[in-house]
Amino acid sequence: MNPLIVVAAISFFVGMFGYVLFVFWLRPVAGYLKVKRQLAKDLNAASARVNSKPAKTGTANWKKHAAAVNRMYDERLPDWYKLTLARRGESPTDAAKHLLTLANTQNPQHAAKRMAEIKACLKIK
User: Residue 36 and residue 17: Cα distance in Å, rounded?
Assistant: First the structure.
């Protein structure tokens, strides 16, 4: 065989493997971590507001975070990463339930408790 054909075939398969690896493994995991970082940032900002003065938290914002966490976990994350999250003790579905409850919470003490539960479910410091 012509060495050029062999090299072209090898590069094709390496490129195909890289595409599958990136699209189905790396990008979903990076997306989940991005959603988690944004949620952590918003939780820390909201907990500072709740502790300083009683104010209503952003209902639509928490619902969007709950939808994003559920969507990433249910539809995009590979099974091996779901098992890794379970082994770490993270529970995105429970966090989404607490986020929806937080969206409907009016009492600042209850909101602070929900925020702590969300941080515990996602292992956010």
Answer: 28
Residue 72, amino acid = M
Mean pLDDT of the chain: 92
* 121's tokens: 């479910």
Closest alpha carbon to 120 in 102, 101, 105, 98: 98
What's the distance, Cα to Cα, between the start and end of the chain in Å?
58
Report the sign of the C-alpha dihedral through residues 71, 74, 78, 84, in that order.
Answer: positive
**Distance, CA of 85 to chain centre:** 11
Q: How far apart are CA 80 and CA 28, in angstroms?
A: 12
pLDDT digits (tens, 9 = 90+) for 41-60: 999 998 888 766 545 557 88
Q: Cα(107)–Cα(89) distance, rounded to whole angstroms?
A: 28
Spatial distance between the Cα atoms of 28 and 83, rounded to a whole number of angstroms: 14
- In this structure, how many other beta carbons lie within 10 angstroms of the beta carbon of residue 79? 7
